Amino acid sequence: MSGAALISWFAFAWAACAALLAGGAIFSRMALHSVAVLDGLLSEENEDDKLDLVQSRTALLTKSLLAVVAFIGAIIALGIALDIALNWALGEGGILGSGGRSVGWELLAGSLGALPPWIRFSRRNARLDFSPLSVLLHRIAFDHPNLSWRLFKRDLKGRGDIPSRPDFLLITGLARSGTTSMLNHISRVERFDSLSYANLPFLLAPNLWRRLYNPAQGEAVERSHKDGVLIHHRSVEALEEYFFKVITRDGFIHEDRLVPHDISSKQAEDYLDYQRLVRSGPEKIYLAKNNNALLRYPSLRRLNNDFRAVILFRHPLFHAASLLSKHLQYGKLHIKDPFVNEMMDWLGHHEFGLRHKPMAWPGTTAGASAELPTGLPTTLDYWLEVWIEYHGQLLAIDDTCCLWVDYANFCARPSQVIEQVLAPWGEKWDFEKIAAFDNTREIKQQHNPALLQRALQLYTELQEKSMAQRHVN
Hints:
- The protein contains 18 helices and seven strands.
- The protein has helices spanning 3-41, 47-90, 94-97, 103-113, 115-122, 132-142, 145-156, 179-186, 206-210, 241-248, 265-278, 297-303, 316-336, 338-346, 380-394, 407-412, 414-422, 449-472, and strands at residues 169-172, 192-193, 221-222, 230-231, 285-289, 308-313, 402-406.
- A five-stranded parallel β-sheet has the order 2-5-1-6-7, with helices on both faces. The protein has a two-stranded antiparallel sheet with strand order 3-4.
């Protein structure tokens, strides 16, 4: 290899590194605009609206393509300029002075010079826990619902051997009520299948995605809640809400609130079909954790009396304090790492943080004063109002096939509670006895005694329901 070719290699390497680090967004934008055109073509809207959508997205793609062409031209020009300058300084011929003798070396130099930035581009970012390439893949998957739905239909074609089962298990409750702990324990029972982090980002086509990405469990780390719960690549999680976002086109998500919505019979059938994609065999039971389930629970129950729900509730003061703490924590995290905020939007998690959206119910419930909580979410009173609104609505549901679980009882008698959950399927809790744990916490924030009193009245009603079921069992 000549000195000129070696110098050229360094020239093109630095040019490619600088270009990709500075202009990676340009390439990502072109990729996203390309997929957006495909997503528009897959839209099921009327032809006029579809045509307008595709035309507008094609215009954006054209602009991004021109930007990429211009950028590549600038990269080549920079590499040649560096090559000429370095070789001139050292008295070598460089590209223009090589007479074509080192063209092969120059092409090799350009190829090898592109490797360092692409390695950098594909590596995990320590702050984000996602590489830029992974971020791009998540945006391709989550920002294009028509593509997701088409992949969902395609994935279903290979699941003819797994019939629908209406007797799935739903774990729900207001966030921070113990639903994650319950999910993690129940998921250890072999008969249940649930969505996991391994299904990200193509949540609506888990089997198609598994052919390309099927990670091992990996090292467990504490989740972003910083609550002692360890997660790994195959940890189960509340991920099914993206399905409801797609089938409703985010119809229940408003700028400042989440609103109740009815599920149609066709959407209920699609939901059971989606569960078929997650279940690995006919005998398997779909297991889901969904803290938004109350928004659609009445219609879901009218259409299906067979599914079972575990509804967790928690002492209102401890619960409100936990929600406040997580809201403040995630507010800081979302500022530090905006991609976490983006992920929570995609997954329909608006429980706390910068994109917090409370559930808003029509009229008033349980003496609550308004559809939305008053005051600021940085106060304990705000979260007490959230608690009152949610549980007032919860007490009004048809609780057929529901198990009411007091989080305090779950903490004190975890194994017995899990056995109660599993009883309808004849499953036994044959794992080691789970140690009891304490769910109380020190409350330092001031709060309105009248609000707490209203909340405690609802809490007593919930406890009565739970104790009545424990007495029967």
